[in-house]
């Protein structure tokens, strides 16, 4: 009965790693997936995570019982505090519900299904381009996906005018997906002034903000600074959703730990919204896993561990910034034609190089460098040792 089934395509992002793994070349380089690597090219488990895990393992009072449908209560409170700020009015007024979900993706999916079921507008606008999984997650959640202009290939920066025009002509009440910081794949974020204009426009048209916060702490190196756009919207008294992921900023990728928060008009509404979130989650996966959320809660609630975390996080962000500088310098030294200043201007884990799919294919074929076909490279996958090889490949690709 399954014989007729055609083979499905590889995921465009995760498929890059599949191809990389098959390549026997000793110089191969995987710049596809957005996972942090050390200067030695190794995955990193933060020291503070190891410490927290050690504490958890040695605590004999801990058991493996099911968590509630909405997850670990401490984790949820601390996650809201992390994104909205300890003194946030939405927390003080208790008009927020936060539920633990399966990392960023799961939080987006639960939020999407909640909106499809209970919100009066089913259309979500996502930036063009955006993380490749967004349209699939929201379509399967039951929303109808449209795009708004975001990136300008000519300037390799933000198409602010196009963005404002498209949000301005979206139907009243439409949902707008916003990357909280370190936009993936472009590395291009609005300035604080532009965020303020976006906020005013969106509130004047009752557009519903749905923030995707997958890189808090990775853009500027400061957790508070990277949360500013979300806090700006939270401060004006309006509603919003935010999906948080701890994959990147705590390096907890495979633990699948994240949170969905919905800011409501008052505490009573928030309580009812939470009751409906439980009805979305229960038949989907019943309740979330306990281990990753316990690690995050242990770190967020202990002053010393929290400080240690911020230092390790800043070190990751700084290493990425230094890779940007090194790659830029290496292209400059080779006299590679073109303006490569966007490599140092763009923010977060990725550089949107501007290389086209043909150039990408050439670099993979001739230089064993793996990346998504849109020319996005993960700066976190680079090291001082591999920058020259990448610069050689880019130089050859653009001068061919
Ligand atoms: N949103 C964006 C913009 C991302 O880049 C990612 C990870 N690549 C995610 C969400 C979700 O990641 P995860 O489910 O691993 O938290």
Automatic annotation (TrEMBL):
One of its GO terms (molecular function) is pyridoxal phosphate binding. Keywords: Aminotransferase, Pyridoxal phosphate, Transferase. PROSITE patterns: AA_TRANSFER_CLASS_1 (PS00105), CATALASE_3 (PS51402), PROKAR_LIPOPROTEIN (PS51257). In eukaryotes there are cytoplasmic, mitochondrial and chloroplastic isozymes. Residues 28-394 form the Aminotransferase class I/classII large domain. Homodimer. GO terms for biological process: amino acid metabolic process; response to oxidative stress. Its cofactor is pyridoxal 5'-phosphate. GO terms for cellular component: mitochondrion. Its EC number is 2.6.1.1. Pfam families: Aminotran_1_2 (PF00155). The keyword Transferase applies. InterPro entries: Aminotransferase_I/II_large (IPR004839), Asp_trans (IPR000796), Catalase (IPR018028), NHTrfase_class1_PyrdxlP-BS (IPR004838), PyrdxlP-dep_Trfase (IPR015424), PyrdxlP-dep_Trfase_major (IPR015421), PyrdxlP-dep_Trfase_small (IPR015422). It catalyses: L-aspartate + 2-oxoglutarate = oxaloacetate + L-glutamate. Signal peptide: none annotated. This is Aspartate aminotransferase. It is an enzyme of class 2 (transferase). Important for the metabolism of amino acids and Krebs-cycle related organic acids. In plants, it is involved in nitrogen metabolism and in aspects of carbon and energy metabolism.
């Amino acid at each position: 009965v399954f014989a007729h089934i055609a083979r499905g395509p590889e995921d465009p992002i995760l498929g890059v790693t599949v191809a990389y793994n098959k390549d026997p070349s000793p110089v191969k380089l995987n710049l596809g997936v957005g996972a942090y690597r050390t200067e030695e090219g190794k995955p990193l488990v933060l020291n503070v995570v190891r410490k927290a895990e050690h504490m958890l393992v040695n605590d004999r009072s801990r058991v493996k019982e099911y968590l509630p449908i909405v997850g670990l209560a401490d984790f949820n409170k601390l996650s809201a505090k992390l994104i909205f700020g300890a003194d946030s009015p939405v927390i003080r007024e208790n008009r927020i519900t936060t539920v633990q979900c399966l990392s960023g993706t799961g939080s987006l999916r639960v939020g999407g299904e909640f909106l499809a079921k209970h919100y009066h507008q089913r259309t979500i606008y996502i930036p063009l381009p955006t993380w490749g999984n967004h349209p699939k997650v929201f379509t399967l959640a039951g929303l109808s996906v449209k795009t708004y202009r975001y990136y300008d290939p000519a300037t390799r920066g933000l198409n602010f005018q196009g963005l404002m025009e498209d949000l301005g002509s979206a139907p009243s009440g439409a949902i707008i997906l916003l990357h909280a910081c370190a936009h993936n794949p472009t590395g291009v974020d609005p300035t604080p002034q532009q965020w303020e204009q976006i906020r005013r426009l969106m509130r004047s048209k009752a557009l519903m903000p749905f923030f995707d916060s997958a890189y808090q702490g990775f853009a500027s190196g400061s957790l508070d600074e990277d949360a500013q756009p979300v806090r700006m919207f939270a401060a004006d008294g309006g509603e919003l959703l935010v999906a948080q992921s701890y994959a990147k900023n705590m390096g907890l990728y495979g633990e699948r730990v994240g949170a969905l928060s919905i800011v409501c008009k008052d505490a009573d509404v928030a309580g009812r919204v939470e009751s409906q979130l439980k009805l979305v989650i229960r038949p989907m996966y019943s309740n979330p896993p306990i281990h990753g959320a316990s690690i995050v809660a242990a770190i967020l609630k202990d002053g010393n561990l929290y400080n240690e975390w911020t230092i390790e996080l800043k070190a990751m962000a700084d290493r990425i910034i230094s890779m940007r500088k090194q790659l830029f310098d290496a292209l400059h030294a080779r006299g590679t034609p073109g303006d490569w200043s966007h490599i140092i201007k763009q923010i977060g884990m990725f550089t949107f190089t501007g290389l086209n799919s043909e150039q990408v294919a050439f670099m993979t074929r001739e230089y064993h460098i793996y990346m998504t076909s849109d020319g996005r490279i993960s700066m976190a996958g680079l090291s001082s040792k591999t920058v020259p090889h990448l610069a050689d490949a880019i130089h050859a690709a653009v001068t061919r």
